[in-house]
Amino acid sequence: MLLRLETLTKRYRTGDLALTEVSLEIPAGQIVGLIGPSGAGKSTLIRCVNRLVEPTSGRVFLGKREITAMRGRALRRARRCMGMIFQEFALVERLSVMENVLTGRLGYVPFWRSFLRRFPQTDIDAAFALLDRVGLIEHADKRADALSGGQRQRVGIARALAQNPDLLLVDEPTASLDPKTSRQIMRLLREVCTERGLAAIVNIHDVALARQFVGRIIGLKAGRIVYDGAPDGLTPAILTRIYGEEDWGGEAHPSGPREATAAALTRDELVRAL
């Protein structure tokens, strides 16, 4: 089993309980969609996995390594195996597309190389190949702030893949994108996971997209798992259990307000995630 969570609990200093004894297992290569209403704990769960948020109790295992027991260098090495893709892209706007992709290698190169932007040629070649894969090779020298939202998310995907991860942690990848671009991004995520045998947890507010592009859905409500199964098992009764009373007779597409409190990313968090 690639990822295992054992009774993961997170209580914030305010006293709010974001997660309550969440236990789950994800095998290598499986793409999981994480759904639920605002405040259900979706973003918190993802960030507890790579310890951008510190769990209050419980354990996280990546393979045989206990992530929650790690500190310092051991934790930094483990994070290299978990590529993070952020809702608000978290790109360095003044850097080029290529330089942003190369930041995915920060966990592998000495500080002086990263500071001087002198990455090994093998890393540069791999970054070009990734940009080609996500359809941005012609934009390699553009500044990140010159890109559209969909293009920025593709850069974020390429940066995460530059880490050579075993697991992708994807936080609301389509929240600020139009419907067509959202489908393209979800399709790209599914394709690269299949090509590379990657597992992924995708925090997604759009149930229709989740049904279309992931093989397993976990529904959270008030920090607890209330559904774990196939997309076609999301019956009106299950959706009501997750989101509350609503007319689920048509295609489910709950897309209420996102968890803005967990979406904001500080510079220090980005450095730790990479």
Automatic annotation (TrEMBL):
<keyword id="KW-0472">Membrane</keyword>
<dbReference type="InterPro" id="IPR050086">
    <property type="entry name" value="MetN_ABC_transporter-like"/>
</dbReference>
<keyword id="KW-0547">Nucleotide-binding</keyword>
<dbReference type="InterPro" id="IPR017871">
    <property type="entry name" value="ABC_transporter-like_CS"/>
</dbReference>
<dbReference type="InterPro" id="IPR027417">
    <property type="entry name" value="P-loop_NTPase"/>
</dbReference>
<keyword id="KW-1003">Cell membrane</keyword>
<feature type="domain" description="ABC transporter">
    <location>
        <begin position="3"/>
        <end position="247"/>
    </location>
</feature>
<dbReference type="InterPro" id="IPR003439">
    <property type="entry name" value="ABC_transporter-like_ATP-bd"/>
</dbReference>
<keyword id="KW-1278">Translocase</keyword>
<protein>
    <submittedName>
        <fullName>Phosphonate ABC transporter ATP-binding protein</fullName>
    </submittedName>
</protein>
<keyword id="KW-0813">Transport</keyword>
<dbReference type="InterPro" id="IPR012693">
    <property type="entry name" value="ABC_transpr_PhnC"/>
</dbReference>
<dbReference type="Pfam" id="PF00005">
    <property type="entry name" value="ABC_tran"/>
</dbReference>
<dbReference type="InterPro" id="IPR003593">
    <property type="entry name" value="AAA+_ATPase"/>
</dbReference>
<keyword id="KW-0067">ATP-binding</keyword>
<dbReference type="GO" id="GO:0005524">
    <property type="term" value="F:ATP binding"/>
</dbReference>
